[in-house]
Amino acid sequence: MVRMPMPPPAGRADLHNHTTASDGTLSPAEHVKWAASQGLAAVGITDHDTIAGWAEARAAAEEAGIDLVPGCELSTEVGKTEVHILAYYFDPTEPAMADLLRRMRGGRRRRAEEAVAKLHQLGYTEVSLERILARGGESVGRPHIAAELVELGVVRTIAEAFERFLARGRPAYVPRPKLEPAEAIAIVKGAGGVPVLAHPGLIGDDRRVRETIAAGVMGIEAYHTDHSDLQRQFYARWGLDAGLVVTGGTDSHGPRATRTIVPGTVSVSMDVVQQLKALSPWYRRTGGSLA
Ligand SMILES: [Zn+2]
Ligand SMILES: [Zn+2]
Questions:
Q1: Which of 43, 65, 71, 251 is 20 to 30 Å from 21 by CA-CA measure?
Q2: Which CATH number fits domain 12-101+178-286: 3.40.50.1980, 3.40.630.30, 3.40.50.280, 3.20.20.140?
Q3: What is the pLDDT of residue 48?
């Protein structure tokens, strides 16, 4: 048998998943188990603005014998365009990073409070902030408000809740706290982490992609559920040309009534996990220990 001198690590990794720590439907442990049952060798847990799922996910990953890639997803804005930044392998206790996560979560809570106040003014006084916060936990967001409106029978679907009330320009819309991509990227790097531009094809404006690369992201998520084959090839090529790590993941939010994306249906080789680890001063220093 002929052996390669340096075989790449075996297996596949899905680097983009959400749990009940933000707007997913499965607990971190359940989601990791689901990912492991799909034959993945590593799963990235990237809840919005929070690391609250890391410890539980890590324990479940160890039990399942797979690698946990700790991360989060930050929503930034340039003008009216949303740019999502995935952050991997950062030190969650680094003060500026911890402060950013607190600020973004505080913003989410304020946003929920203001949206509920607006719904009350519109006459929907049965909408309860407490129940929405119970749904959303640390990372409450518009999907939680929408789900509550569906349950109350105010609207029939999540989409209708957004169209009538929650989308930009609608009567219960509240803008999020301002965070620009360059600021998020700098803070993630300052915490020894690896910032990656999430789903560039969904931004809808490649000038923003170019600017975000110039602002210093270290990776680009070319492989994503909602990217076409052509987009995957295009952004993978762009990433390689720019010297970036080319990442990928499903963006699974767990089983949902509207759309269930199974972890691992988009994946990258474990070599990508090695590259992310190698780029993270925090990982190199701590071996990824969360203690
Ligand atoms: Zn996103
Ligand atoms: Zn996501």
A1: 65
A2: 3.20.20.140
A3: 92
